[in-house]
Amino acid sequence: MPDNTRRARDEDFWQTFADRYDSEPGPINLENGYFGRMSRTVVEEYQRNIELINRSNSVHVRQRFEPVDGLRIRAQLARLMGVPADGIALTRNATEGLQSLIRNYNRLQPGDQVLFCDLEYDTVKGAMGWLARHRGVEVIEIEHAHPATYDSLLNNYREAFARYPRLKLMALTHVTHRTGLVMPVQAIAAAAKEQGIDVILDGAHALGQIEFDLNELGIVFAAYNLHKWIGAPLTLGFLYIAPEHLVDIDPDMGEMHFPVSDIRARTSYSTPNIPALMTLPLVLEEHAAMGGAAAKGARLNYLRNRWVNAARKLPGIEVLTPDDPRLYCGITSLRFTDHNDQQVMAERLLHDYNLFTVVRTGAACGPCIRITPGLTTTAADMDALIKALTELS
């Protein structure tokens, strides 16, 4: 929306939101991809909920939360995602949901093939390796050429689908945590479906900063975090299974607290962080009031482009994430081409320029420094990064 694009540049407008968050004195945080901040009002609500549950203990949980409030929260998440409530099961994080989807996927036979790429989360790679050891499948890992383009990404998958005819399942990350590359999920999922390959989507970094429709994407299995860009307390996430595909995922390790027809049987049964869950209605209300993913994404993209446009012109700096609007979001990575050890340069950014970043490894294109602005980041913070990169280059 044009209004979001225009408003993304309005520092006074965004300062009104930044003022709602508390932060410790210290370096400028450009590592907001790990987890997000809660607003001051959410922290206060969370604290009230902790005190309430501590006082009332199981009485409130058994009489109120489990039969009423917990179901309402699940319905609210379903509305956020535009899916039926019976397609949502709460988890502690996206990783827990992805592990459950992968290990309980029941359409594999010995000799089948499963696929992931170099940019997936390490835990997802590990879970696919678990399938090889316990299900007798063959694991296929592909690497994406750098620099990536929309067509190169899609063609790489199409070539893999043709090269490995026994493929039945693949992992796909919407926003890759290593470089911030946004995958063309809809096109890849459509190509996979043509070959009878199911996709499990890692949406950990997507929810809250990218607008998407799961039905349009063609995704029937996915997992998400609520503590990154939605603004919830830590230890909150959920998995999604399209109701018509529930039969493809077995109950988790024989889980029997819920009937086999209930998606909640696909997660491990345990006592969740109830005070955090009770905070979700306020979190979702604030997310919507801020303008949702459309407004957040526009702001984060503006901050990203502010430093990337300058860094592209600097010698000795390579920005790894493409500038195709379909392939980037607020998270973007760089590297100092004249330095082998990117950790040394991240430490210089911290100690010499008061900028906190994180090094990511594991991508075929090599180690990089991930830059992730947040909703409290200012244009001046981005200018401080530009100054540092200019001097270090």
Automatic annotation (TrEMBL):
GO terms for molecular function: transaminase activity. The lineage of its organism: Bacteria, Pseudomonadati, Pseudomonadota, Gammaproteobacteria, Pseudomonadales. Residues 72-380 form the Aminotransferase class V domain. Keywords: Aminotransferase, Pyridoxal phosphate, Transferase. The keyword Transferase applies. This is Aminotransferase class V-fold PLP-dependent enzyme. Pfam families: Aminotran_5. It comes from Pseudomonas vancouverensis. It comes from the Bacteria.
